[in-house]
Design brief:
Structural class: alpha/beta
Number of helices: 12
Radius of gyration: 21 Å
Distance between the termini: 37 Å
Largest sheet: 10 strands, mixed
Shape: globular
Length: 452
């Protein structure tokens, strides 16, 4: 279990990092940070993680050139709370917006508080240029939006998912924004986001940049780059049914369509990586690629079980790849358990920035791990939904679902097939008690409501 002492030590990681002569000389500046977040990409949806029916050569290359994580967890099983964790470095259940599973379309009642520090606001204060391109899903009102949370620029969507061609929510509302202004622009969403990110990297940057590229792919609606007919069909269905969230946009699809969506995402990352190389920025840029939660209908989550929305492995274990030429060993793999909030802490450490003491981080700096200077960290991680709860401690995972309390040895059983609760009652009791104590520090679960 990660002790309070270790957490306090990690909060001083930025200062320690600034003093490392082998990484940052007295005249050098902090690295650029490129954080690429896929949407609903499952654990096995990249060919370097086992996807058998299509290839992702550019992300496979990224893994060959850096570090691949095999036990990377999201802070939640759906997108809004995970994004809360990324933008705060804290467990999502510490904030009201983190209780949304996810934030409903058009819900203006809650959002990320404008006073809460984020990696963007803290890095900006330290001199970074900051931009968010892609999905936000942390509030609709301007005071809850990206511009109020440290991003100099925002181009993307505020909601959970839009049509890839007309950029409309299921209700028919246009959801594509330039800053706080709604814009109507033709193009396939994945390509629009890639184009804007490429343009951003190509600029002359007087200061280091933090670019958050949050793709909407491969989240539904299931539309490949050539599926304009499917886009019209989804709109027609959505217009004829009462519950547009379920019907229309979230229906249909196929394995072939999903493959096209994932391949276009991979191609977009490839274009961006080539732009870094052409601009001479590769060696000065820390790149992270990961996903906001597990995959859904057409994802390949093997060996994990279940999918998005569940606290089984398939809902919260996702790919993660880090590359930083000359700093991160090439072709390396780690089974260290890490979680969304760790990326927040790591970005602050990269920028030599300390966290706001009023908002203590729940994540730890992964730079020593990424650079091979730390072999292993003992971690105890927690998750909670309205219906489920889970704890991961070293090899063991406690899970409570509607089926009762379960205990798994994840190191030997990542598919969670063999419940060992009856064989290790003391461990089950201890993990249950750890969850109880952690849960007592979080906001209460919301009153049960009808899930749409």
């Amino acid at each position: 279990m990660l002790s309070r002492r270790h957490f306090l030590q990690s909060s001083f990681a930025a200062a320690a990092y600034a003093a490392l002569p082998q990484l940052r000389g007295p005249r050098s500046r902090p690295p650029n940070i490129l954080f690429i977040l896929a949407d609903d990409l499952g654990y096995g949806d990249l060919s370097c993680y086992g996807r058998p029916d299509y290839r992702t050569p550019h992300l496979d290359r990224l893994a060959r050139e850096g570090l691949r994580f095999t036990s990377n967890y999201t802070a939640a099983a759906v997108c809004t709370p995970t994004r809360v964790a990324l933008m705060t470095g804290r467990y999502p259940a510490r904030l009201p917006i983190g209780l949304a599973e996810p934030l409903a379309y058009g819900d203006n009642s809650v959002g990320l508080p404008p006073e809460h520090p984020t990696p963007a606001s803290l890095l900006k204060r330290a001199g970074y240029a900051t931009a968010l391109i892609g999905k936000w899903h942390l509030g609709y009102l301007p005071e809850h939006g990206p511009i109020r949370h440290g991003f100099d620029e925002f181009y993307g969507i505020l909601s959970g998912g839009v049509d890839y061609f007309n950029h409309q929510e299921p209700s028919g509302k246009l959801d594509l924004h330039e800053g706080n202004v709604t814009v109507d622009q033709a193009g396939y969403m994945t390509d629009l986001l890639t184009d804007r990110a490429v343009q951003y990297v190509r600029r002359r940057h007087a200061a280091p940049f933090y670019l958050a590229l949050h793709y909407t792919a491969p989240h539904w609606p299931w539309e490949g780059p050539g599926d304009t007919a499917a886009s019209r069909r989804y709109r027609a269905v959505a217009d004829t049914v009462k519950d547009r969230f379920v019907k229309g946009y979230a229906d249909g699809g196929s394995l072939r369509t999903f493959a096209e969506m994932a391949e276009r995402l991979d191609q977009g990352v490839g274009r961006l990586l080539r732009t870094l190389e052409d601009s001479g920025l590769s060696r000065d840029t820390f790149v992270v690629f990961t996903s906001d939660n597990g995959g859904e209908r057409y994802s390949y989550n093997w060996p994990a079980s279940e999918a998005k929305g569940s606290l089984h492995e398939g809902g919260i274990r996702v790919p993660a790849i880090v590359r930083w030429p000359g700093r991160v060993p090439v072709g390396s793999v780690t089974d260290q358990t890490v979680i969304t909030m760790d990326w927040s802490a790591t970005m602050l450490a990269l920028g030599g920035v300390s966290a706001d003491p009023r908002y203590a981080l729940d994540g730890v700096d992964l730079l020593p791990l990424c650079q091979g200077r730390t072999v292993r960290m003992d971690r105890t991680l927690f998750w909670r939904t309205r219906e489920e709860e889970a704890v991961r401690e070293e090899a063991w995972k406690y899970l409570r679902t509607g089926e009762g309390e379960l205990l798994f040895d994840i190191s030997n059983d990542p598919g969670e097939r063999a419940d060992l609760a009856a064989y290790h009652p003391e461990r089950l009791t201890r993990l249950r008690e750890q969850f109880r104590r952690w849960n007592g520090e979080m906001l209460p679960r919301p009153t049960p409501a009808v899930r749409r």
